[in-house]
Specification:
Keywords: Nucleus, Repeat, Ribonucleoprotein, WD repeat. It is found in: Nucleus, Nucleolus. The chain is an alpha+beta fold. It folds into 2 domains: 312 residues, 7 Propeller (Methylamine Dehydrogenase, Chain H); 66 residues, no CATH class. Helices cover 17% and strands 35% of the residues. It contains 6 helices and 31 strands. Helix 1 packs across helix 2 and helix 1 runs parallel beside helix 3. The termini are far apart.
């Protein structure tokens, strides 16, 4: 006689401890769960709305400077420390977790133009408009002792920027010439000059460490190899470039911040044209810095905003601003890829989140899982109109909206002019003449949206008129 017995494993439905979640049996057969996509779409809309609710990027400010914050430098080994230099010659060392100034140095007479750490972070260099380079120890003076530099180098030219080699004991400065210095010498070991204009920014490549890039007063970007005796290449822009930053993950990619309100990403191997033109700012871009991942960068502008761009994106994904913040002079992205720092004209440094809706602090496993699930939903439905509209909306000041509208009108006009001139379309009285003997009335041609035309489709649409 056969007897069928129901056998169950208690581990499948009984909790191990009273703190565990009750297990709920589920059948994942899609035939039993219709309308899965509409439910996920609703969840995606709710997720993107909640992201807007929790988007509070501003963390705090660091006040204490008495003049414009001109430059900043991150510590190479410590996430909690950062240096800032002001227009009155004062350099401050900040403790970010406590948001306090732990050390203040009267370093220069006049503006502090640049700060850089050595690779180990044991000391740092400053340069100013007083034609002096000073080396300072990270260990402050003892009780009752005065702050004195470890080393001082005098020059005949006013320095505009300084940057340290990523591996050895050399650093570079720029003024009327680009000079490469050894830490143990009082004279430059190598000097470069191309033309008579001053060089305003200089940066070492973090991967190809012998490669230097600088921006000059004559609107040019110049490449240097410190192993050679002459500059490598030069490309000239339409307007002056204010800052330059190398991609830390791709040795040949760099981005420059320009006076024409745009940022330009270049491939150092092909300098004939930029790989991407980043358009979102409505005033001159003052500084730029890459994230440690090399996938994004942050820029600060004369329009009093910070913007975050993806490397291959034409427009910014995020914009940060406050009522009190003035012209942003310098920006930095923290080494842990979670925070941004900005220094502006009203003598303050500000600390921001790199992702506006990210939660600071510990999260439970269920919370992390829910966040990942919502991110996947937003990615899946990113191109749906309602989700896209909510995700793209950013509240910006009225002055920026007005400037953006004006720039849109200007670009639209330039595009129409280019189409008319390039394809030989001319206005004459109330008609458009497209080469004799074809004549088309303006009212008929106005049905074509010139702003959205491409070269390949223009002939087809114009040909359809006749």
């Amino acid at each position: 006689m056969k007897i069928k017995v129901l056998s169950r494993n208690p581990d499948d439905y009984i909790r191990e401890t009273k703190k565990d979640i009750h297990r709920v049996p589920r059948n994942y057969d899609p035939n039993l769960h219709p309308f899965e996509t509409p439910r996920e779409y609703t969840r995606a809309v709710n997720a993107v709305k909640l992201e807007k609710v929790f988007s509070k990027p501003f963390i705090g400010d660091l006040d204490g400077h008495k003049d414009v914050v001109e430059c900043m430098c991150k510590h190479p080994t410590q996430l909690s420390h950062i240096l800032s230099g002001a227009g009155d010659g004062e350099v401050k060392l900040w403790d970010l977790p406590r948001r306090k100034c732990v050390r203040s140095i009267n370093a220069h007479d006049g503006f502090v133009r640049g700060i850089c750490f050595n690779p180990s972070g044991e000391y740092f260099f400053t340069c100013g408009s007083d034609k002096v380079i000073k080396q300072w120890s990270m260990d402050g003076p003892g009780a009752g002792e005065e702050e004195e530099p470890m080393n001082t180098i005098l020059s005949k030219n006013v320095f505009h920027s300084i940057d340290h080699h990523w591996q050895n004991n050399t650093f570079a400065t720029c003024s009327d010439t680009v000079d490469v210095w050894d830490e143990t010498r009082a004279e430059p070991v190598r000097s470069y000059q191309w033309g008579v204009d001053s060089i305003y920014t200089i940066k070492y490549n973090p991967i190809e460490t012998h490669l230097l890039a600088g921006t000059a007063d004559d609107r040019s970007i110049i490449m240097y190899d410190t192993r050679g005796s002459v500059p490598l290449r030069r490309v000239r822009m339409k307007l002056k470039s204010n800052a330059i930053a190398w991609n830390p993950m791709e040795a040949y990619m760099f981005t420059v911040a320009s006076e024409d309100y745009n940022l330009y990403s270049f491939d150092a191997r092909y300098l004939d044209k930029p790989t991407t033109i980043h358009q979102s700012h409505v005033a001159a871009v003052m500084d730029v810095d890459y994230s440690p991942t090399g996938k994004e960068f942050v820029s600060g502008s004369y329009d009093k905003t910070l913007r975050i761009f993806a490397v291959g994106s034409q427009f910014s994904r995020e914009v940060y601003h406050t009522r009190r913040m003035q012209i942003v002079q310098c920006v930095r992205w923290s080494h842990d890829d979670r925070y941004l720092l900005s220094g502006s004209d009203e003598m303050n440094l500000r600390l921001w989140k790199a992702r506006a809706a990210e939660k600071i602090g510990r999260m439970k496993p269920r919370e992390k899982e829910a966040m990942r699930y919502n991110d996947k939903l937003k990615e899946k439905f990113a191109q749906h109109p309602q989700v896209k509209r909510i995700a793209k909306y950013r509240h910006v000041p009225k002055r920026i909206m007005a400037a953006r509208k004006e720039h849109t009108t200007i670009r639209s006009s330039q595009k129409r002019k280019y189409v008319y001139v390039f394809w030989g379309i001319y206005r004459k009285q109330s008609r458009l003449i497209i080469g004799a003997p074809y004549v088309c009335y303006l009212a008929r041609y106005s049905e074509i949206c010139v702003d959205r035309l491409e070269r390949s489709s223009l002939d087809v649409q114009i040909g359809a008129l006749f």
